[in-house]
C-alpha cells in the first residue's frame, strides 16, 4: 500500500481521535479497497462512510474521492449499494426516514452534513438525474425554469428565457422542442423526458451531477444521445454515474469504482478496470460470472 495515500486518507480525520487504534482499523478496512480511490484534485471527498437502513448496514467504510471534472462510473451487482452511496453525495438519503449516514463527506473541503448546510442549496450544487425520467407536471419551459425561479438566478423574463434555452441546448433537446415550450413535459418521449430532466438539473448551474442509471429505461438511440451529452457535459461538470452497462461505463467514464455487498472493492482508470482488474471480485463481475 502506498504510504502517501494512507496519509492523505488519514488527514481529514479528527486528530483528537486519531490514536493508534483508529490508524490500525483504517488500515485494515482500507486494504479492502484496491487501486486509486483518492485524487489529487478532489471535488468531493468521502471518508469512512457507513450507511444504515434501520439496523441493516448498506455501505461499509467507503473512502473515495470524486475528482474535479471527471466522469466516474459506479458499478456492481444489484443491491451492492451504488444508489445508496450516490445519494449520500447530495443528502438525498435525508428523505428516507430510516436511513442513517456516518462518516465525512466534503464538497470543496467542506462537510455537507452539518446543520448549517441547507440541503436544497446543496442539491442545486450537486444535482441528480434519476433512472426513471421524472418531469414535473408542468410545461417544458416551466420544468427548466423551476430551479432558476426558486433560487432567484435570473433578474427578468428575458434572462430566464435565455437560461431555459441555454439549458435545453446543452441537454441536446432545444431543437426538438423549441416550437412547443408550453407543451407538457410529460408528453415527450422517454429519451426526451430524460434530456429535459438533465436540462432542469443543469439550469441551476450545478458543480456536480449525480446520475443513477440515467439511460437504463431508454432505447439504444436515446441512450447514445445521453452518452454523447455526458461527454459534452464533462467539460463543465463533475459527473458520477451509476450504470449496469459496462459498455456504457467504458464509453463515458475515466475512472470506475466497483462495489460489492456495500464495500468499495476496487477503483481505477476505467480501461484498467475492464481490461486488467486487480481484485478477484472485480474480475468475476466484469467477466460476467455474477451480477
Ligand atoms: N429505502 C430503503 N429502505 C431500506 N433498505 C434499502 C432502501 N434502499 C436500499 N436499501 C437496501 O440497501 C442495499 C443497497 O441498495 P441500493 O439500492 O443502494 O443498491 P444498488 O447497488 O443501487 O442496486 P440496483 O443496482 O439494484 O439499483 C440493499 O440491500 C437494499 O435492500
Ligand atoms: Mg440502484
Would you kindly provide a written description of the structure presented here, covering whatever features stand out?
By secondary structure, the protein is an alpha/beta fold. It has a single domain (46-286), classed as Rossmann fold. The protein has helices spanning 3-10, 20-30, 82-88, 119-125, 140-150, 157-170, 174-177, 190-203, 220-233, 246-252, 270-275, 280-286; strands at residues 34-35, 42-53, 56-67, 71-75, 99-107, 110-111, 126-129, 208-212, 238-242, 255-260, 263-269. The strands form two sheets. It has a seven-stranded mixed β-sheet, sandwiched between helices. β8, α9 and β9 form a beta-alpha-beta unit. α6 (157-170) packs across α8 (190-203) and α8 runs parallel beside α9 (220-233). The longest helix is centred in the middle third of the chain and has 14 residues, at 157-170. The protein binds adenosine-5'-triphosphate and magnesium ion (MG). Magnesium ion (MG) binds at residues 82-83, 212.
What do we call the CATH homologous superfamily?
Answer: P-loop containing nucleotide triphosphate hydrolases
**CATH uppermost class:** Alpha Beta
Over all CA atoms, what is the radius of gyration? Answer: 20 Å
Beta fraction: 15-25%
Shape: globular
Low-confidence segments, ≥5 residues, pLDDT <50?
1-30
Mean pLDDT: 89
Distance between the termini: 28 Å
Q: How many helices does DSSP assign?
A: 12
- How many structural domains are formed by the residues? 1
CATH architecture descriptor: 3-Layer(aba) Sandwich
Class of secondary structure makeup: alpha/beta
**CATH topology (level 3) name:** Rossmann fold
Number of strands: 11
Amino acid at each position: 500500500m502506498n504510504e502517501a495515500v494512507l496519509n492523505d486518507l488519514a488527514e481529514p480525520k479528527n486528530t483528537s481521535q486519531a490514536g493508534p487504534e483508529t490508524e490500525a482499523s483504517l488500515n485494515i478496512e482500507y486494504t479492502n479497497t484496491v487501486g486509486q480511490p483518492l485524487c489529487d484534485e478532489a471535488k468531493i471527498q468521502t471518508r469512512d462512510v457507513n450507511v444504515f437502513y434501520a439496523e441493516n448496514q448498506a455501505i461499509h467504510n467507503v473512502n473515495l474521492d470524486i475528482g474535479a471534472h471527471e466522469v466516474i462510473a459506479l458499478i456492481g451487482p444489484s443491491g451492492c449499494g451504488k444508489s445508496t452511496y450516490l445519494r449520500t453525495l447530495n443528502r438525498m438519503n435525508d428523505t428516507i426516514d430510516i436511513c442513517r449516514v456516518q462518516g465525512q463527506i466534503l464538497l470543496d473541503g467542506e462537510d455537507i452534513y452539518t446543520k448549517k448546510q441547507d440541503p436544497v442549496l446543496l442539491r442545486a450544487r450537486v444535482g441528480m438525474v434519476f433512472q426513471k425520467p421524472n418531469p414535473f407536471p408542468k410545461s417544458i419551459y416551466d420544468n427548466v425554469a423551476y430551479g432558476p425561479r426558486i433560487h432567484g438566478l435570473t433578474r427578468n423574463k428575458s434572462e430566464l428565457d435565455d437560461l431555459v434555452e441555454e439549458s435545453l441546448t446543452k441537454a441536446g433537446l432545444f431543437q426538438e422542442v423549441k416550437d412547443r415550450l408550453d407543451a407538457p413535459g410529460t408528453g415527450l418521449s422517454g429519451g426526451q423526458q430524460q434530456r429535459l430532466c438533465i436540462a432542469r438539473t443543469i439550469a441551476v448551474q450545478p458543480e456536480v451531477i449525480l446520475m443513477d442509471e440515467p439511460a437504463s429505461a431508454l432505447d439504444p438511440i436515446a441512450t447514445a444521445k445521453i452518452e454523447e451529452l455526458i461527454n459534452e457535459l464533462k467539460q463543465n461538470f463533475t459527473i458520477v454515474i451509476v450504470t449496469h452497462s459496462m459498455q456504457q461505463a467504458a464509453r463515458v467514464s475515466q475512472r470506475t469504482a466497483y462495489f460489492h455487498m456495500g464495500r468499495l472493492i476496487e477503483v481505477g482508470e476505467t480501461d484498467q478496470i475492464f481490461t486488467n482488474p486487480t481484485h478477484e471480485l472485480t474480475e468475476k463481475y466484469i467477466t460476467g460470472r455474477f451480477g
